[in-house]
Amino acid sequence: MKHSSSARNQYLATFCVNLLSINYGFACGWTSPSFALLQSVDTPLSSGPITTEEGSWIGASICVGGLFGTLISGWMSERYGRKLTACLASIPQILSWIMVIVADNAYYLMAMRFLGGFSGGVCFMVIPTFIAEISEDRIRGMLASTLVLSCNFGILLVYILGNYLPYATIPWIMLLFPIAFIASFSFIPDTPFYLMRKNDFARSENALRFFRGYCTDTQQVSNEFKLELVKLQDTFSDEKQSIPQDEITWADLSSRHARKAFLIGICLMAFNQFCGCFAMLNYTASVFAESGSSLTANMSAIVIGTIQMFGSYFSTVLVERAGRKVRPLGGLRCFGNVPSAVVGSKGYVNLLVNCCLHGAGFEGFKAHLNVEKRFLHENLEKKNYDSCQRIQISQYSDCSVKAFQFERDCLVIGTLTVRY
């Protein structure tokens, strides 16, 4: 059996599940082209233009939702399975865009962002797990990187749509993605590993057959498939026998090894958020609008979104070649923050260079998250990894909330310096 045919259903399942991450990218980037209209006299809200304070809460609500989504997603994926958890994550996405359609005041938009963030928190837990459990070793790394690329694609696409389409049209288009996800993902089985853990051996084997390109009734299978099935059964048997020893205790999390890993992970996440990346995502168009450029703000945002796409891809390639510790782009990210403090000497050109450095420097800002996931996976014991992953993403959301208001104020000061 050729490799291309054996991986076909793995590519299909990865594409379907990443419709969720694309839609999360929509939710992240939606504020950039929308804020200018919402704060103007032509606002579609019947309550009138939103204030700066309301805009800040609309922007930060996605992080609050992400915090809650992360906390329950691990439990949901273990209790109900990876497939059902992913399907449930699409419901808040549908509700969030309905909120935009019916919104008549800022509180609807805050709820929309909260729901989008909640879904995103679930996605960033369940999608990597789903992809890791269905994919072959030879393509697992490539398929895992699609989470970051899909999310950044969603951000770029909503920047483009925001520039060319009316405000009221965009949420209707966004609604198509979670609906398409439910329609397509319904035909994808749950992961073989999860089904094996639930003692559903027949469905587990059928799921493995599906993801390896075999029909259910096919008798002729490759030796690789037989070995993988045996390995899956052995993994389940070993896990079942080692449950008493593998229960997580406070001693596991307070050991010197775990404390060091936690400290490194928390520092990485804090640096990631306080670099200003999330505020730039939400206020890209607003920042360029304040700069007084002849180039439209939304077109400038599209440029940044394109750089972000290339940055996320380049980061994925770089981390495999240069390792987890040596990351030249990390220095570029820090360098990208320096012009934020001194911007003004070159006006719009300096601001554009600064934002380009920001876009390349934080590597599409979610690629950084993948590096930290791999770091924790490679430096923590297996039984601690799931808990540490939830703590990591929870801390990511928490840092985003704390950093968001501060970063927005810094951006306002920077753009006023540019303008005057």
Q: What is the CA-atom radius of gyration, in angstroms?
A: 22 Å
Give the C-level CATH assignment of the largest domain.
Mainly Alpha
Uncertain runs are 327-367, 376-385, 401-409, 411-420
Structural class: mainly alpha
Straight-line N-to-C gap? 66 Å
**Number of E-state strands:** 0
CATH architecture of the largest domain: Up-down Bundle
Overall geometric form? globular
Mean pLDDT score: 75
Q: Give the count of structural domains.
A: 2
**Amount of beta strand:** under 5%
Q: Write the CATH homologous superfamily of the largest domain.
A: MFS general substrate transporter like domains
In a few lines, what is going on in this structure?
The chain is mostly helical and about 425 residues long. The chain has helices at about 5, 10-30, 30-40, 50-80, 80-100, 105-135, 135-145, 145-165, 170-185, 190-195, 200-210, 225-240, 245, 250-255, 255-275, 275-290, 295-320, 330-340, 345-360, 365-380, 380-420.
Keywords:
Growth Hormone, Chain: A; 0% strand; mainly alpha; 420 residues; 2 domains
Model description:
Helix content is 81%, strand content 0%. It has 420 residues and is mostly helical. It has 2 domains: 1-188, Growth Hormone, Chain: A (Up-down Bundle); 245-420, Up-down Bundle (Growth Hormone, Chain: A). Helix 17 packs parallel to helix 19 (347-361). It is globular, with a radius of gyration of 22 Å. The model is unreliable at 327-367, 376-385, 401-409 and 411-420 (pLDDT under 50).
SSE topology sketch:
Layout: H1 3-6, H2 8-29, H3 31-38, H4 52-80, H5 82-102, H6 106-134, H7 137-144, H8 146-164, H9 170-185, H10 192-197, H11 201-211, H12 223-241, H13 243-246, H14 250-254, H15 256-274, H16 277-290, H17 297-322, H18 328-342, H19 347-361, H20 367-379, H21 382-419
